[in-house]
Every structure is written in structure tokens, then in C-alpha cells.
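forwarding from the other thread:

> can someone predict this with 3,4-dihydroxybenzoic acid?

sure thing
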Amino acid sequence: MSITTTPITPDIDLYLEQMFSNEDDLLRQLRIDAEQQGIPSISIGAVQAQFLSVYLRSMNAKRGIEIGSLAGYSAITLLRALPTDGHLYCYERNPEYAMFLENQIAKAGFTNNTTIVVGNATETLAQFPEQETVDFIFIDANKEAYADYVLQTFPFLKKGGVVIADNTLAWGDIAKNDVSKTVASLQKFNTFMKEHQGFLTTLVPLGDGMTIGVKL
Ligand code: DHB
Ligand code: MG
């Protein structure tokens, strides 16, 4: 017997998509409408979305922070995994994307469960409500600021809570040398999480990879 890793070939990728995603009409339409409005098609994939749903439900997550909400695909996914009194703080830099996001969240019925904060998260996070604590931080924004986002939100994250960061396989370039500034930032981020004494960290290679650290 040997220890092997099964590569995710295109046929396996399709299999995962067919078996373990359940994108509904609202999210399908959101993707179409977002593209029509010129919002980049860079949301998480449907398989990643279902993974996040399973994960948040398994940990009974109630409140979280999302940094980089874009059109709201992941925000709605995360909100659907929370109880009816759950709450998600959405940080989005682009005011036009934030307006689209607000409409989509209303359409999905989560207006009362959501706080949208518009602006650069490294600045706006400084005003995060002091007494509030959260079960998770989902990071999918400026790749060069991932470690800063973690440092800024660390005090609000409960013990046993998780940081989940998207794109940590860096479009396939994470293990390469002589990479772009963005890829180098993601390499540094993974090392930062691995070495941070306050987290136990793994990387789940679904979609473009999600680094997940549980707060010890
Ligand atoms: C891209 C993908 C992402 O998931 C993201 O957060 C940012 C950029 C991209 O493919 O360019
Ligand atoms: Mg992403």
C-alpha cells in the first residue's frame, strides 16, 4: 500500500460539479446578472460553495465576516448555512458591487442578517463593533492583504472559529518559483498561517484552493 494523492482531472472535476454542488436559480441568475453589469466572473465555484455550507453547518456557525463580497455569490452561500438569527458582515471595496450585493441579499431574503460595509477593508475593519465575536472569517479580497486581514480580525474570532481564504493555490502557481507579486503574496500568506501559533492550518484543494485555519 502506498500513500497517494489522486489528481483532480477534468473528468473528476465534472463529477464533483455534478455530484456535490446544488446551485439554485437565484445563484445561477446572480452569476448572469453580475456578468451583464460588468462585475468580474471570479466568484467561488459551486463545489466550493457546497463545501463551505457543509463546513459551516458542521461547526454550528452563527456569525461571520466576509472580506471581498463582490456580487454576493459567496455571501448568500454563507448566509444560507447560518441559523435564522445568524449574521454576516460583508466588506466590499467597490460601491457599485456593494449596491449589486445589497440587492442580491435582499432578493435572497437576508437583509436583516447582513451588514454591508463599503470601503477598503484594511481601513473599515478598524471600526468593527468592539464587543462582537464571530465564528468564521471568509477572505476573498486583495491577495496582498490576506495576512493583514487575519491580524485585524483575529481579536474578534472565537476560539474554535476558522479563517477560510480563497485562491490559495494561486491559479495553479502556488508551488512555483519566480512568481508574480500576487502569487508571492499568497505563498507568504500560506506560510504566515502555517507558522501562526494561534492557528492549526490546512489547505483544501477544491476550486482554486482554500486555506483553512482553526483558532486554537
Ligand atoms: C480571480 C479569482 C478569484 O477567486 C479571486 O478571488 C480573484 C481573482 C481570478 O481568477 O482572476
Ligand atoms: Mg477568490
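The pocket of magnesium ion (ligand 2) is lined by residues 42, 140, 166-167 (CB under 6 Å). thats all i got for now
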